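Section 5.1 Outputs to date
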Amino acid sequence: MQKLDYNQPDFEQNLKTLFRRPSYPPEIEQRVSRILSDVKMLGDAALVKYAQEIDEVCLTPQTFCVGNEEIKAASKQLSSSCKHAIKDALANVAAFSTRRIPAPWSYSPRPGVVIGERFEPMDRIGVYIPGGTAPLVSTVIHTAGIAKVAGVKEIVATTPVGSDGIIAPAMLYAMNLAGITEIYRLGGVYGIAAMAYGSDSIRKVEKIVGPGNAYVTAAKKLVYGETAIDMVAGPSEIMIIADDSCDADFIAADMLSQAEHGSGLEQAVLLSTCPELIPQVEAAILSRREDLSRRKTVDQVIEQGMFLIQVDSLEQAAAIAGDYAPEHLEIMCRQAGYVAKKVKAAGAIFIGQWTPEAIGDFCAGPSHVLPTAGSGKFFSGLTVEGFFRRTSIVNYRKSALKKELDTVLEFAAMEGLDAHGQSAAARFECESK
């Protein structure tokens, strides 16, 4: 763990170092690009090759897709409590998304003119579901579950498998319940490539959403243009603002919750106005780590990605948080709601000591697919609007066009686009003859 204090002369410089966290190491792009190129050129043959090479699973185009019998069998393996949790989370996420479905609208700003917008759900989207270090069942709900609410007809999922080719039963059950129409045992970069480019056995999608490791993130960035993507997101991160009213054990537990994700590149940052709280949190972290199943990964984050920072005031904490733009921001202090309003950028804000970040990961309602690495300054988390096409609507009557014809002609002259001007003027040429 690294400790910083606002009284230190190099405090600002150390903060800048903390803020510089790439979504993924740039050196991996060459390998990612080669895999993408192979899948684009060779299709199914490349998918078979990389499934064997990367995930050590022997697949054929006929076994890429999960069949209905396997999905039905998965349901029978789950406890009623597991099914209930999945259903509850899906209902919460769907209810939140339903409130955000965009509606068509129009108005008349000037006589003879009607303008507005129309929204149509996409036809075919892809969701990437991480399944390597942990089968992220919740990601199914926070991606496909939202696409289903939007009315997307075809929802394609790719997820990595082990050498046995098996997808976790809870994952398959959630995929079926969330409305996924095609499930492929294709992970990592080659799974992204399959959705972006298509092959003889898989049709390409219009948009790819969902989190992943550094290779998946790089792949999504590189296929942008062939298909749309939600965002470029890196390793998970959490920042906590706390004062002397906070429970050190709550803070420690929440920081560790992000440290266990698996890459070892995650970050967990505490900003506290209380100097006595920092050693208490440190002790609680070291105590709690003893009982965690993912200690190797957690220890790497504790060593390299945990920061305990003493700040001068809650106002300074809010300013630092806004510049850092964390994926998850917990505010556990007096007047937490007031402090939250002072933060200019964050993927999601969790207010008060009874709102752990994990509630957002699983079942609160908003999607847990959120911007990281400071990209919250220009990206937003996944919402139902992301699965719609927005189309502008423009409708002019003759009298309105005639009134604005001079404006059109002036712009056409300024830009040297004669045909543009003529396309409007031609409609009135008969009147001058």
